[in-house]
Amino acid sequence: MKLIRSIPKIISCLILPVLVLQAESKPQPNVVVFLADDMGWGDAACYGNEKVQTPNIDKLASQGIRFTQGYSASGVCSPSRSAILTGRTPYRNGVWNHLSGLGQTHLREREITYPKLLQQAGYETCHVGKWHLLSRNQFEDYEYPHPDTHGYDYWMATQNNAMPSHENPVNFVRNREKVGEMEGFSAPLVAAEGIHWLKDLRNKEKPFVLSVWVHEPHLPIATDEQFSDLYPGLPDQTYLGNVTQLDYALGMVMDALDAEGVSDNTLIVFTSDNGPEGGDTPRNGSTGGLKGRKRACYEGGIRVPMVVRWPGMIEPGLVSEEPVIGSDIFSTVLDATGITLPSDRTIDGVSMIPAFRGEALERKQPLFWRTPVSFGDSRLAMRVGDWKIVSNDTLDVLQLYHISEDPEETNNLASAMPEKLAQMKHQLLATWNAIETEGPSEWWINATGRPKKGATLNY
Question: Which residues does the UniProt record annotate as the domain Sulfatase N-terminal (predicted)?
Answer without folding.
Answer: 29-339
